[in-house]
Design a protein that fits this description.
By secondary structure, the protein is of the alpha/beta class. Among the domains are: 240-348, Succinate dehydrogenase/fumarate reductase flavoprotein, catalytic domain (Flavocytochrome C3, Chain A, domain 1); 420-533, Methane Monooxygenase Hydroxylase, Chain G, domain 1. The chain has 16 helices and 22 strands. It has a five-stranded mixed sheet with strand order 1-9-10-11-2, with helices on one face. A five-stranded parallel sheet has the order 8-4-3-12-19, with helices on one face. It has a five-stranded mixed sheet with strand order 20-18-13-22-21, with helices on one face. A hairpin with a 5-residue loop joins strand 10 (178-185) and strand 11. The protein is globular, with a radius of gyration of 22 Å. It binds succinic acid. The site of succinic acid has 11 residues, from helix 7 and strand 17.
């Protein structure tokens, strides 16, 4: 039998503790919790990096989309998801999401989710961009928090599920090519090890890679980095969704101002109070997110700050429907119902991630992925609003079902191009990126890296800008990292940033969240493909 190893190949620490279970779930958001509920026939260990509600789930405002309305159907929901995805969605994954959505949202309702109700007592359905009908269930403007509450209540009642919080997973333990467990630092900074034949990554997003983000501090892309370093396939990382409307006020946190606000009639205006979005897209304020985000930047460059206005809406309704945002605005000295609210884009969601099929199976035996960390292809190049909580629920439940099967057929989807080590070979470029940026230094502070990613790999990308970013990041990646918690966090962020910049440089077209100023058109002939990065094992 192979001796188990971790991907950093360090010998086990002498004082580490070993836990053996049937299933390990990394992450305490909607995907991880829903999976844990499905796995509870065995012994489950949930490892969460922070406390409950600190991940992206707890921050999700808008809601959860599901085809429950009388004028709706799974096929209409699927069609809207495909439209948002800009020609790159995996249609099987979309059918699963839209088709199974009502069942899993119904289950949440049975479990006591307190969503807002309409006058007939049915779940009230909100509207967001690119949805052709009202389809978004919501709990005020704190839907993720409510779903998290329901799932945590169920998980806590399960005697077979243990939760270790403030656990930072450092490595996957691999034996004979299969993932057989994890190593992690516990709350006291001690190294621990857990073994299980099946491990689920449900670690969420990576917004902290960028200077401006709606994501909480824990969204550092750990699952993507762990899987990549272990040799798993990573797909589509060039596709980052920049939410158009984060609060943009000097000294105030960049908190999300939900798209649901525009769904209920709020308008984007420039400093002349002109509703400018009609000049950029026929769907105006409810155009796809990437278009609204770029239009805001262009309008700001042309004419100064951009605002959201709700002044024409009923004040009492605004306060009742959006209490959290109202409160956050108040903290920043603004009245949501009466003031012009200054806004700008911020990194919000990553469509790419660990390559996974519709059952969460990754390219590594024993390793599964669900939720934002996974790339099933369900979102294509741009996620439809309010499909992310649904994704966590549906694919978390399906991953749990697959993890209980004996076999783990690797997820090897046919429509992927695999970039092993040298991506240059694939596109046939003549020149490699500059190794040394002008005036660059090997030291890269966290703030400088986030700023670099925002400037060079954010909403507007160019070959030169991405080359510069990549050269700096690759240099940072080759430096030794401290083996402690902070060093791990930094390594993960640098790995994910490097993968994003490399993927964005590679894709010479514009599609969904990925916009190249030097290749502004969508190019289906050359680029209607998913590209997968995989570390060459030597
Ligand atoms: C929002 O409320 O605008 C964000 C919801 C989402 O990202 O789907």
């Amino acid at each position: 039998m192979d001796r188990p190893t971790t991907n950093d190949q360090r010998p086990p620490a002498k004082d580490h503790f070993l836990t053996v279970v049937d299933f390990i779930v990394i992450g305490g958001g909607v995907a991880g919790l829903r999976a844990a509920i499905g796995l509870a026939a065995g012994r489950v260990l949930i490892l969460t990096k922070a406390g409950p509600a600190e991940g992206n789930t707890g921050y999700a405002q808008g809601g959860i989309a599901a085809a429950l309305g009388e004028d709706d159907s799974p096929s209409l929901h699927a069609a809207d998801t495909l439209r948002a995805g800009d020609g790159l969605c995996d249609e099987d994954a979309v059918r699963v999401l839209a088709g199974e959505g009502p069942r899993y949202v119904g289950e949440l309702l049975e479990w006591g989710a307190r969503f807002d109700r309409d006058e007939r007592g049915r779940p009230a359905l909100g509207r967001e961009a690119v949805h052709s009908v009202r389809r978004v269930l919501h709990a005020g403007d704190a839907t993720g928090r409510e779903i998290g509450r329901v799932l945590w209540d169920r998980v806590r009642a399960l005697s077979t599920v243990d939760v270790v919080d403030h656990a930072l997973v450092t490595d996957l333990v691999i034996s004979g090519g299969s993932v057989e467990g994890v190593r992690f630092f516990d709350r006291e900074g001690r190294l621990q090890e857990a073994r299980a034949p099946r491990t689920l990554l449900a670690t969420g997003g990576a917004g902290q890679v960028f200077r401006e983000t709606t994501n909480p501090a824990v969204a550092t892309g750990d699952g993507i980095a762990l899987a990549y370093h272990a040799g798993a396939r990573i797909a589509d990382l060039e596709f980052v969704q920049f939410h158009p409307t984060a609060l943009k006020k000097e000294g105030a946190p960049r908190f999300l101002i939900s798209e649901a606000i525009r769904g209920e009639g709020a308008r984007l205006v420039n400093r002349d109070q002109e509703p400018f979005m009609t000049r950029y897209h026929p769907d105006a304020d409810l155009a796809p997110r990437d278009i609204v985000a770029r239009s805001i930047v262009r309008e700001a460059e042309r004419n100064g700050p951009v605002y959201l206005t709700l002044r024409h809406l009923d004040e009492a309704y605004v306060r009742r429907r959006f209490p959290t945002i109202h409160e956050m605005c108040r903290g920043a000295g603004l009245d949501l119902a009466r003031d012009l609210i200054p806004v700008g884009p911020a990194a919000h969601y990553i469509m790419g991630g660990v390559d996974a099929d519709e059952w969460g199976r990754t390219s590594l035996a024993g390793l599964y992925a669900a939720g934002e960390v996974a790339c099933t292809g369900v979102h294509g190049a741009n996620r439809l609003a309010s499909n992310s909580l649904l994704e966590g629920l549906v694919f978390g439940a399906r991953a749990a079902a697959a993890m209980q099967e004996r076999a783990h057929p690797a997820a090897l989807k046919a429509d992927r191009i695999v970039a092993r080590g040298s991506w240059l070979a694939i596109r046939g470029h003549a020149s490699a990126p500059d190794r040394e940026p002008a005036g660059g230094t090997p030291e890269l502070s966290a703030a400088a890296r986030r700023d670099l990613m925002w400037q060079r790999a954010g909403l507007f990308r160019t070959h030169t800008g991405l080359q510069t970013a990549l050269a700096v990041l690759e240099r940072a990646e080759s430096q030794p990292f401290d083996a402690g918690v902070e060093g791990r966090r930094m390594r993960n962020l640098v790995t994910v940033a490097t993968l994003i910049a490399r993927a964005a440089l590679r894709r010479e077209e514009s599609r969904g969240g990925h916009f190249r100023e030097d290749f502004p058109a969508r190019d289906d002939r050359a680029w209607r493909v998913h590209v997968v990065d995989q570390l060459e094992r030597t």
